[in-house]
Each structure stands twice: as C-alpha cells, then as structure tokens.
Design a protein that fits this description.
The protein has 300 residues and is mostly helical. The chain has one domain. Helix content is 78%, strand content 0%. It is built from twelve helices and no strands. Helix 1 packs parallel to helix 10 and helix 8 runs antiparallel to helix 9. The longest helix is centred in the N-terminal third of the chain and has 29 residues. It starts with a helix and ends in a 12-residue tail after the last helix.
C-alpha cells in the first residue's frame, strides 16, 4: 500500500464530495504520473474505485436533498449504454491502432474543459445576471428529457474510453444546459456518476483493466475524503462554490493534458488552479466589501 496513493485518494475524495469533480479527471493522471500505473489499468481502476466512492457520496447528497433525481435518471438512460459502447470501442481501437488515437482525443477534451472553466469563472465573477437564472430543480418536459439522454450518451461514451466525464463533463452540462444551482449541480452529478461508474467499472473489470489492490489502496483515502467533502458542502456558500467549480475544472484540464502527452509540470497542476482561485477570492471579497465610512466635514 503506497501512502502517496492513499493521500491522492483522500484529496480527490474531498473534491468529489465538495464539487462532484475530481475522479477520472484528476486521479488517472496522478496514478500515471506519480505511481507509474499503465494508462489502461489506471483508467479501469479509476472507474472501479470511483463507483464505490461516488455511491457513498451520492447517498449522502441524496439525504441532504441536493439531488435532482429526474435529471439523474434521464442522464443515466443515455450514459449507461454510451459507457458500454465506449469501453467496447476502447478495446477495439486499442487492439487495432494501439494508443495512437488517444492523445488527440484527450487534447480535445482538455481544450474543451479549459474553455468551459473560463466560461464558468467569468460567469460567476463578471456576469451576475446569468447566475440569477440558476434554479433548484428542472421541469421534466420532453425537451429536457431528450437533452439529458443525448448528453448522457455522448459523455458516457467519452467516459468509457478515457475515464473523464463522470464529474467534470456532466457537471458542465448541469451548469450550462440545465442551469442548476451549484449545490444541486454537485449532488446530481455525484448521484448520477455512481450509477454510470458501476456500469463502466464492471465493463473494465470484465476486460481485465482493474487492479483491485490499487483500488483498495485508493479507497482507504477516498471514502473518508468524500465524507469530509459532503460535510463541508453545507458550510460553503454558492458564491464560493461557483468559482471553486471553475478552478477544479481548470485542474481537470491540466490533468487531462498530461494524459494527452503534454508535459505539464506537477507544480502547475496544483499551482495554477490555486492562483486562479486566489484571484477569484480577492475579486469576490473586493466586490462584497462594504464602502468606507464617509468622513463628516468639520465646520470651520
């Protein structure tokens, strides 16, 4: 059991509980970069451990009332078959072309994550009128159901191939398409991911891509981490959680870039999101700071 892997599990577990993001987008690059795990095994093991971790997180969020059950179910209608097709496609492409197709796909995902991370940060910090449109729940119309199924199918396919999508990409859809409030984004994201990851993880297990000893080591850290994260979410305001989601997505993008073969310094994986988060914090503090008291003129 590697203590570093346990610490990775703890940190990512806290992020999953608090933001819904951090599984495949962060854990797989950490396993590849720092633990020397082969990418295919890292992806399969990541999905398998994530199924257990997000089941615990999803249950806790459901009890807190931060899950939009209707959106979760309709996303799963599309994402579950999409993930199965993704795992099957990964095996076929790996057998036919090796790994030559992966860098371009991962680079595209990373670019998309960066664009949307910047969009979310800009929306939270500079466009308060858009924030006002956020809603606690989504009306289950035919249009929203079809949108959820299509989004789930596409992102489930991406997850089956790359392990990215259960948190980062689904979270983006919940924010940009369904316009849920930040806390409902996190809860709905984690709850849906629990369903999706069990299917994808079992498919990778059948394909022989899961290292159960590594999975158990990660769970030692991630299960307490997700409990801590879900405990913290009720104490974090929406104004803080919005830019935090953007910063975590930025970290996810940097992590995915490393999977694509781009040399991102390990310090940048943590330092860049932290610096952006610090800048966002300073800006928010400046915006909400009370005006200085007026000094009354002293009569001559």
């Amino acid at each position: 059991m590697d203590p570093i892997v346990i610490l990775f599990g703890l940190g990512v577990g806290i992020l999953i509980g608090l933001t819904g993001i951090g599984g495949g987008s962060l854990m797989t690059p950490l396993l590849v970069l720092f633990a020397g795990i082969p990418p295919v095994v890292a992806i399969g093991t990541d999905l398998a451990y994530g199924a257990v971790t997000k089941t615990l997180g999803g249950w806790r969020h459901w009890r807190k009332g931060t899950v939009d059950l209707g959106v979760s179910v309709w996303l799963a209608v599309g994402s579950v078959p999409g993930a199965l097709v993704g795992v099957w496609l990964l095996q076929r492409l790996h057998g036919a072309y090796g790994k030559s197709f992966e860098p371009a796909l991962l680079a595209s995902i990373a670019i998309a994550l960066i664009i949307v991370a910047v969009t979310i940060l800009g929306r939270a910090l500079f466009m308060p009128r858009l924030v006002a449109r956020e809603r606690h729940s989504v009306e289950q119309t035919r249009r929203t159901k079809v949108a959820a199924v299509l989004i789930g199918a596409v992102l489930g396919l991406v997850l089956g191939i790359t392990s990215v999508g259960s948190g980062a990409l689904i979270g983006l859809a919940l924010i940009l398409v369904f316009q849920l409030t930040p806390h409902r984004v996190v809860g709905t994201d984690v709850f849906h991911a629990a369903i999706l990851l069990w299917v994808a993880g079992l498919a990778h297990w059948v394909s022989g891509n899961v290292d159960f000893l590594l999975m158990g080591t990660i769970l030692i850290g991630s299960l307490p981490g997700v409990v801590i994260g879900t405990m913290l979410i009720g104490q974090v305001s929406a104004n803080v959680l919005r830019p935090a989601l953007g910063c975590v997505l930025l970290a996810s993008a940097l992590g995915v870039l490393t999977k694509a073969g781009v040399e991102v310094p390990p310090a940048a994986l943590i330092g860049v999101p932290l610096l952006v988060g610090l800048a966002a914090y300073v800006l928010l503090r400046t915006r909400v700071a009370p005006p200085p008291p007026e000094v009354e003129a002293v009569p001559a």
